Amino acid sequence: MRNFDLGTLRSFITVSETGGMTAAANKLHMTQSTISMQIKRLEESVGLPLLDRNSGRGIRPTAEGDQLLGYARSMLDLNDEIWGRLTAPKYEGTICLGVPGDVIRPHIPNVLKQFNRDFPRVQVKLKTAGSIDLAAEIEHGQQDLILTTEVYDKDQKLPSNGELLAVQPLLWTGAVKGHAWMARPLPVAMVRGCAFRRSMIDALEQAGIPWLDAVDTDSEDSTSVAVAADFAVRPELPTFSDPGIEEIDHRGELPTLPRCSINMYLADGPNKALAEELAIYIRGAFRG
């Protein structure tokens, strides 16, 4: 009988996703030589080259490797689901998670998938809203765990229930090949209560650039439509994924925006134990 080793398949998947043996070894907390030996034995066992080491863009799966990749992911997902359901603490209940729309992707979908796999009896109620609104809700006991986007201050000390997850630059974004960024006054599209609004206004006014609100909305979708239609521009984190929107190559004609911190806050309430479990998954996703 011929059987695939699940640990080897996990290494194969990670190499394919990271594009390198070293990166995969770091992510899996293994040595590079161990990863290389696993891949070598896997290729020898199937008698096929599974990874192209000369692609010029890092290590990539071959045509045969792509076929294996889909099956390998399914096998690992099933393995992890079984382990999660058999070994997870018997937590039950509902926890409320609040996340700003601009940091939902790329991490939160996979976080929720993994958490649901490992804690099938726990329901997560996800709400997207602006950071200012979410901060008020956790203060009043309406959220168990929130993420916020805030202007980064290296001297700022977060409260005891707060934790810094990441620091990222803010970028000017607009429609693909758009021209709205050249208009004066500069049309901007931001949801009400956006944490970046004050810093954006300060940057524009210090640069002497007049501006106007192109939309008045609480909906991220509405601002995305306005920006993609080349009606306006907006500040974004580098992880933005809206179709029809790209970082603006303004060649210094728009001011540099401040860096942004992504913070996590836990409420000290009856669901704290559950929220702390979910926080482990979020922390791991943002810190790689």
Automatic annotation (TrEMBL):
An annotated Gene Ontology molecular function: DNA-binding transcription factor activity
Keyword Transcription: yes
All residue ranges annotated as the HTH lysR-type domain in the record: 4-62
Gene3D superfamilies: Periplasmic binding protein-like II, Winged helix-like DNA-binding domain superfamily/Winged helix DNA-binding domain
Keywords: DNA-binding, Transcription, Transcription regulation
Pfam families for the chain: HTH_1, LysR_substrate
InterPro entries in the record: LTTR, LysR_HTH_N, LysR_subst-bd, WH-like_DNA-bd_sf, WH_DNA-bd_sf
Domain of life: Bacteria
Protein family membership: Belongs to the LysR transcriptional regulatory family.
Name of the protein: HTH lysR-type domain-containing protein
Organism this protein belongs to: Kiloniella spongiae
Organism lineage: Bacteria, Pseudomonadati, Pseudomonadota, Alphaproteobacteria, Rhodospirillales
